[in-house]
Amino acid sequence: CVSYLLYSHAMKVLIAVDESDIAEKTFEWYLNQIHKPDNDIVVSHAGEPPHLPTLKFMSKYSIDEIKNIMTQSNKKLEEFKNKYSLKCAEKKIKCKLVFQLSDKSPGETIVKIANEEACDVIVMGTRGLGAVRRTILGSVSDYVIHHARIPVIICPNKNCS
Amino acid sequence: MKVFIAVDNSELAEKAFDWYYRELHKDGNDVLVAHSAEYPHIGSYAFLGGQLPVEEIHAASAEATRKYEALKEKYLKKIEDQQSAKIFFEVHEKPAEGLVKMAEKSHCDFIVIGSRGLGAVRRTILGSISDYVMHHAKVPVMVFHK
């Protein structure tokens, strides 16, 4: 029989996160249970841009207001990115952070980033902050599973110890 | 970590199994190679004559048993050199539900399953069994493509 040790090599892992607790638990679970020292990690966030009040009924839009919203949004993104940057530094793990806002759906963006970064596997939670609690599987993870060409690891809400 | 690898006779199941060992396996992981076999099907046309289709039943049963044993042999051989790997084969009326029950019974921490098996409907990217397992598992599930 074949000895698998001979074939072991480094893997590039994409961990897709949002601001939810599940994402954090998924990240921790991956590091504790799956991570190998040689693995390259890409932590990615595919956010949606804020809604801009470009048109208000019967009144002109305010450029300042729009600027403000965009600044806030970028600031939040930076803070969120730093949060994961710190996590990686704490665990002494080198990782690449790809945090972006896009008009495309988060699922599409995640698959796109996975392709661009030539990842071997995607790790993500079943659901994030989405409002539709009826579904057990969130729409983003659902999309990624159906469209990714690489293995996808989905971590459920509860047992990610 | 206790790993539950769901397999069937498909090539993809074997690729998922190999990929797990090549990329994810760590010393200390216990592995269960699991299969949830279905009861053999006998087309209902066979019962139309009013008589029990004894020969068909025997044939279907023998064939199902043969395939089951062959699959078991195949994976027993693959895990020969692994210290902490075991075979876990059961028969259930519904294979998807069976897999989830088996996974829970085994108290596994992680499930590995191919995105599709031997199912005939090739239009769908995700097979019905992996889809079911993913929606009902209480632990992380890896769905393997390629």
TrEMBL record, chain A:
Segments forming domain UspA: 12-156
InterPro entries per UniProt: Rossmann-like_a/b/a_fold, Universal_stress_UspA, UspA
Matches recorded under CDD domains: USP_At3g01520-like
Pfam family, one: Usp
Protein name, UniProt field: Universal stress protein YxiE
Source species: Ciona intestinalis (Transparent sea squirt)
Lineage of source species: Eukaryota, Metazoa, Chordata, Tunicata, Ascidiacea
Automatic annotation (TrEMBL), chain B:
Stretches assigned to the UspA domain: 2-145
Pfam families associated with the record: Usp (PF00582)
Lineage: superkingdom: Eukaryota
Xref: InterPro entries: Rossmann-like_a/b/a_fold, Universal_stress_UspA, UspA
Protein name, per record: Universal stress protein Sll1388
